[in-house]
Design brief:
There is one protein chain. With 227 residues, the chain is mainly β. Helix content is 13%, strand content 49%. It is globular, with a radius of gyration of 19 Å.
């Protein structure tokens, strides 16, 4: 499979498949495909697995697209302004993503739910108790809100992040929640909690969480009045 990402702030990834190669995506992300692609829709492993994906922010059903001849194309478009980030899985590395991170992947990539082991991280982690886990072999494409910044944390190195800005991390990164200290900081600062990320491992930070974009737009939305 070959791919190219186009579109700037409104990106689309265009994948070129050879005969027999398969891509999968969540329902609604496919923008176009060439005529000799076969589509099959199913739960991707049974109803329980589909329900698990729904809990982590995606759809119960997945679409599978298989090329029936060489040089077939298919495009997967992001739903919000931002980036499409490709990550290659080699069978031994595991990536943990935010809710709704999954866009599309090669057929060898496994998509599962991921539960935070610590209750504090689950309740106050910004994106909820359930995240997405990507394993297997192949390339997975993740949706990132805004721009993306990558940090490679060394063993024991810590990074404090607003929880909504965490896009993805390697499974080796320890994730917990740290309460903001000081009454004034809590009342007038950045909120009650930071996410504390501790290496080793890579962390991907997104610059414009969709939830914050929605908050910024609320004052400019027209209000309805009752007649």
């Amino acid at each position: 499979m070959e791919y190219e990402i186009k579109g700037g702030s409104f990106p689309i990834v265009i994948c070129k498949l050879q005969k027999g190669e398969t891509m999968k995506n969540e329902t609604g992300a496919m923008a176009f495909m060439s005529s000799d692609m076969k589509m099959d829709t199913n739960t991707g492993g049974g109803l329980l697995k589909g329900l698990g994906r729904a809990l982590s922010g995606d759809t119960i059903f997945l679409n599978f697209f298989t090329a029936q001849s060489d040089n077939q194309q298919i495009g997967f478009a992001a739903r919000t302004p931002g980036k499409i980030m490709p990550i290659r899985l080699n069978g031994s590395n595991t990536i943990i993503g935010q809710k709704n991170a999954f866009l599309a992947a090669e057929d060898g990539v496994n998509l599962d739910i991921y539960f935070r082991n610590k209750l504090g991280a689950g309740i106050f982690g910004g994106e909820g108790f359930i995240l997405q886990k990507f394993t297997g072999t192949g390339i997975v494409f993740l949706e990132i809100d805004g721009e993306v910044i990558e940090y490679d944390l060394q063993p024991g190195e810590k990074l404090l992040v607003d929880p909504g800005h965490i896009a993805a991390m390697e499974e080796s990164v320890e994730f917990d929640i740290e309460r903001v200290k000081g009454a004034k900081n809590i009342l007038f600062g950045e909120g009650l909690f930071f996410a504390r990320l501790q290496g080793p491992g890579k962390v991907w930070i997104q610059t414009m969480p969709l939830s914050k974009l929605a908050e910024a737009l609320i004052p400019f939305l027209p209000t309805t009045t009752e007649k």
